Amino acid sequence: MPRCRRIFAASGRKRVTEMARMTMIEAVRSAMDVSMARDDSVVVFGEDVGYFGGVFRCTQGLQAKYGKTRCFDTPISESGIVGTAIGMAAYGLKPCVEIQFADYMYPAYDQITQEAARIRYRSNGDFTCPIVLRMPTGGGIFGGQTHSQSPEALFTHVCGLKVVVPSNPFDAKGLLISSIEDPDPVMFLEPKRLYNGPFDGHHERPVTPWSKHDLGEVPEGHYTVPIGKAEIRRLGSAVTVIAYGTMVHVALAAAEDAGIDAEVIDLRSLLPLDLDTIVQSVTKTGRCVVVHEATLTSGFGAEVVSLVQEHCFYHLEAPVMRVAGWDTPYPHAQEWDYFPGPARVGRALAEVMEA
């Protein structure tokens, strides 16, 4: 993979480190590789993740490197995969398992919410459940209604879970390592439309590869990105745009296209949520637009809007707006109408600015 050099300023000295250029697929794979090399208790399993390397090749080469006892295939049974992971975690292992598509997690929802999320509480802290459930999420690949869903709100409602959604390779690796090292269950949602490039919603244009993007620079060794800390991707003073996953890049494109001085926040972690960063930004701008790909009703954006209203009411100059998917199953034939693209986000920005 291509390499570059990054200079860090620290204590008045310059330090040059070698950085690899990675896709999000490679970054996720590197996170598992680094974690498995550092800790023998980390195991990886799921449907087709072993010899085949996963449907998106995120686990390619791990079985050959670490053997069939640490990276292995499972039957097509999501409830079985998660139930096995919970048992392994109680025994002292650290499973990092793959649900092939987020749409397939529903048979395992009982195991996730009734077992994994509650082990620490019901055992009064005697047991924890250090599992990571990786799952490709979202649309933009013409996957239709059973390969395009964004179920993050179903997890953020559950006490005991952490929910992480990276938007780039650098964060994906650092957040996944943090998730694997976390003592509690983490839902790690990987926006599949970002696997190979920072898709900004302009589907009619060629996609810029991660090899040409700053956030495609990823250290090859061990590092972490803290869970529960948002990142401001674009500074601005006119309006705050709050997004996560693919929608971060859509929001950036919308602000640029509209010529609006928008501040764009990448949540990165939905649970725990970095409320301080949100409040500081909205207090400064007085306006807010929340963007997510999931359906509008009861989507995670509703929680964000409620918090903004609660904590920033006296600073708001306009109603908080949401841009989201339709309240329908994901439509294959109308992918780009359903997908909250830059035009839809731009209209919301203009409406908020005119209010």
Which helices and strands, and how do they pair?
Layout: E1 3-10, E2 13-21, H1 24-38, E3 42-46, H2 62-66, E4 71-73, H3 78-91, E5 94-98, H4 109-115, H5 119-122, E6 132-137, H6 152-156, E7 162-164, H7 169-181, E8 186-191, E9 217-218, E10 231-234, E11 239-243, H8 246-258, E12 262-266, E13 269-271, H9 275-285, E14 288-295, H10 300-312, E15 321-325, H11 335-338, H12 342-354
Structure description:
The chain is an alpha/beta fold and 355 residues long. The protein folds into two domains: 19-219, 3-Layer(aba) Sandwich (Rossmann fold), CATH 3.40.50; 231-354, Rossmann fold, CATH 3.40.50.920. Helices cover 33% and strands 22% of the residues. The chain is built from twelve helices and 15 strands. The strands form three sheets. Strands 4-3-5-6-8-7-13 form a seven-stranded mixed β-sheet, sandwiched between helices. Helix 10 (300-312) links the parallel strand 14 and strand 15. It starts with a strand and ends with a helix. Mean pLDDT is 94; it is low at 4-16. Keywords: Oxidoreductase. Pfam families: Transket_pyr (PF02779), Transketolase_C (PF02780). It comes from Rhizobium azibense. Its EC number is 1.2.4.4.
What is the structure about, briefly put?
Keywords: Oxidoreductase. The chain has 355 residues and is an alpha/beta fold. It has helices spanning 24-38, 62-66, 78-91, 109-115, 119-122, 152-156, 169-181, 246-258, 275-285, 300-312, 335-338, 342-354; strands spanning 3-10, 13-21, 42-46, 71-73, 94-98, 132-137, 162-164, 186-191, 217-218, 231-234, 239-243, 262-266, 269-271, 288-295, 321-325.
